[in-house]
Amino acid sequence: MGELFIAGIGPGIVLALLFSAYCYVYSVYHADSIALVEKTSWSEKLQSIKKPCCHWVSRR
Q1: Spatial separation of the C-alpha atoms in residues 50 and 58, rounded to whole Å
Q2: From residue 44, how far is each of 9, 19, 56, 58 by CA, in Å?
Q3: Alpha-carbon distance 33 to 31, whole Å?
Q4: What is the mean pLDDT of residues 34-57?
């Protein structure tokens, strides 16, 4: 059972690392085309997910 777990987790971790590296390299070489957004506070982030989460919970 452990071998099957490693056979699934190992490639997943490798793919995640490769994708992260690709995103980093892309952002370095294409810094001028990446849109910057305003920084938001944690309270603003929580308020922005409050309505969708309440809607999701109420539908269950």
Answers
A1: 12
A2: 35, 29, 19, 22
A3: 6
A4: 79
Taking alpha carbons only, the member of 59, 60, 37, 35 closest to residue 48 is: 37
pTM of the model: 0.53
Distance (Å, whole) CA 25 – CA 17: 12
pLDDT of residue 24 exceeding 90, the answer is: yes
Q: What Cα–Cα distance (Å) separates residue 7 from each residue in 1, 3, 4, 55?
A: 10, 6, 5, 38
> Which residue shows structure tokens 């109420």?
58
Domain membership flag for residue 45: no
Looking at the 3D structure of the chain, how many domains does it have?
A: 1
Q: Are 27 and 34 in contact (CB under 8 A)?
A: yes
Domain-located, residue 14: yes
